[in-house]
Amino acid sequence: QVQLVESGGGLVQAGGSLRLSCAASGSTFSSRSFGWYRQAPGKQRELVATFERGGNTSYADSVKGRFTISRDNAKNTGYLQMNSLKPEDTAVYYCNALLYPLYSWGQGTQVTVSS
Questions:
Q1: Would 33 disulfide with which of 7, 60, 98, 102, CB 3.0-4.6 Å?
Q2: Confidence band of 13 (pLDDT split at 50, 70, 90)
Q3: What confidence score (pLDDT) does residue 26 get?
Q4: CA nearest 50: which of 80, 73, 86?
Q5: What angle do CA 39, 78, 33 make, to 5 degrees?
């Protein structure tokens, strides 16, 4: 089975930056496309960034130009660099496969942006 562990979240002021990490076990990041998702209280989970097998990336309009997704295959770890953070970015962030079937969801990491 594949286990996903997200880390790197925290409390940051608007305009600040955070770097999230996603450690995977039981598989390799290079074997499948993956993405970062987020879920705010009372809202449904949304996809914010994708990294395809060939290295192509894409972003939701709400984060384009501010977030950067990457991976380190040797470390079996994915990353999300978040710059120019806004209060609207406040959510629990998760990583997972991009295409179905998805893996079991990890605990996520909380990102809170103060105004």
A1: 98
A2: very high
A3: 80
A4: 80
A5: 85
- Amino acid type, 69: I
pLDDT at 104 (0 to 100): 93
Distance CA 75, CA 63 (A): 26
- Whether the ω angle into residue 101 lies within 30 degrees of 0, i.e. cis, is yes
Per residue in 14-73, pLDDT (tens digit) is 999 999 999 998 877 777 899 999 999 999 999 999 999 888 999 999 999 999 999 998
d(C-alpha 102, C-alpha 115), whole Å: 34
What is d(CA 38, CA 49) in angstroms, rounded to the nearest whole number? 10
